[in-house]
Amino acid sequence: MPTRSWRLLLPLFALGTLAAGARAEDGKGWGHFGGTAGGTRHSTARQIDRSNVDKLQVAWRYSTGELRRRGPDLITNSSTQTTPILVDGNLVFCTPFNRIIALDPATGRERWVHDAKVPLDHKIPYSYNCRGVTRWVDPQAAAGTACATRIFMGTVDSRLIAVDSRTGRPCAGGGTNGEVRSARPADKWKGESAIFSSPVVAAGVVAVGSFVMDNLRTDAPSGAVHAFDARTGAPRWQFDPIPRDPADPAFATWLEGSALRTGAANVWSTMVADEGRGIIYAPVGSASPDFYGGMRKGDNLYSSSLVAIDAATGRRIWHFQLVRHDIWDYDGSAPPLLAELPRNGALVPAVVQNTKQGFVFVFDRRDGRPLFPIVDRPVPQAGALPGEWLAKTQPFPVKPEPLVPIGPVTEDDAWGFTPWDRWQCRKEIRKYRSAGIFTPPSVEGTLLTPGSAGGANWGGAAYDPQRRTMFVNVNRVVQVVRMIPRSEIPGLEGIGLADGKDIAAGTGTPYGTNRTWLLSPWGAPCTKPPWGELIAVDLVSGDVKWRVPLGSIEKRLPVKFEWNLGTPNLGGPIVTAGGLVFIAGTMDQVIRAFDSDTGEMLWRHDLPAGTHATPMTYETGGRQFGVMVTGHHLWFGAPAGDEIFAFALPQARR
Question: Which of these is catalytic: 164, 274, 299, 329?
Fold first, then answer.
């Protein structure tokens, strides 16, 4: 997951995001965090198109009041990454402090608020965040009755909240006064475990994953997925990606019984559902600690995997391990994406998993059969830390080809604005080990290509079913990982400073971890741009159709002009039937629209605060809106804000 060292990029950059939605009854709404249950982030709305997108203007704006309500310390410890959904004529979203708010989608007028009253004593870096809420329509309830449609939200103190979609009042039949608490020991792991991403609903259950703080300890909180009866809140099942039962065949992939003493392997990103088949697809993260695996030798199933789970029972249907014995924090970070792809004259139900490595894995979502070949390739073995265990091979998809560079970083790769900073970068690169992707972390420092923020990250991808094209944003900044011997950080617990380094203690291991970015003295990445890209991939052929730099450094230049070198980014794209891809997520606080066929940028709008959320779009009253949530981001240090901006054409097309 991203680290505080993103702040080192601030001398060069800053950020923005869009969101939008529509009436569910006309198919132009946005009823899920990812637009659809399958996370396609596609809208059939077409009123805004290539011919008129340059005329978009602010139609309304709304302030949540969180800046005034929370104060600077709490805002600094928060990240705004929410995407609204359209439910029963309300635009519904959550703030980082777990207030659910419903607005009139045409005017932005506030209709109701539900405050989950989360504790306000979390310390940096145990941040406040809420990426989204989820709706569920009770098939046994009469339309219009209380809680016939429910809004579910997970909280930073690991509760699951259920409220009525029309009023925001708690659903009395859902747990205790509309809330249930997961089995996580919230007091023991205060701040280290939370629910940030939106719940997923299928087969009458609502399931939640969890955020678990990276690198703090070997015995991190459990990453189990918890599922509850969507109507009563009663516990239904748990799926722990770490197999604790010695009778489970996967237990043998955790040598020396390490499955019994390891934590995390959590689903911190967003799960998606094949509602018709009753399957939940869970992108599982790495086990603890992230960068040293000597305490958990073996392949470590089902960590860093895509797992298909039976929604009714919690039974694992199939899995694919994306990274064996993950010691690079290459979590399953991006939400899976469900699509129908032609193969041998028939449409195959597919699931697409983007990864931090810049890989795109495509499977038959019924049984996990690869739809493009996947091969095992040898990976670097030299230079492992004492006591470490390495997988000799890792899976590589043959198609699509990696979306970001994965080879060794050499002095010849050094880049600079001038010969002087390029020379400084050459010296910096010379300090570290680099044998390409999957080079083991080291005491002297290892260059991660790509870094642990991606490739693709939690924003995921969008999919146009007509063009059968996927759109995904990626990061291309090289990361430096240094392992710090325990003798050099005596007594350090949690995250702190030692010898000027920002170190995660890794309690219970021989090493702490320091993560930074490979930067010049001027704060720019030491490898050539683009440092962030938006990429279109044909999911039939597996070929890249186009790729463009994503983000400009203009706000850090003495003379303002748009210089699209690409910037690091978090948040994702959406695609519309109007032939447009909307995305923000960059460090320049700009929302952009691109031509989905060519990648040409057709529109941009500057925002006053950070925008690291994923877009959405909707129609209401015959008018299409785009809604963008602005706010702060803990890791990027983006300018603080608490406003939603809605964009529309000057008047609806007749």
Answer: 329
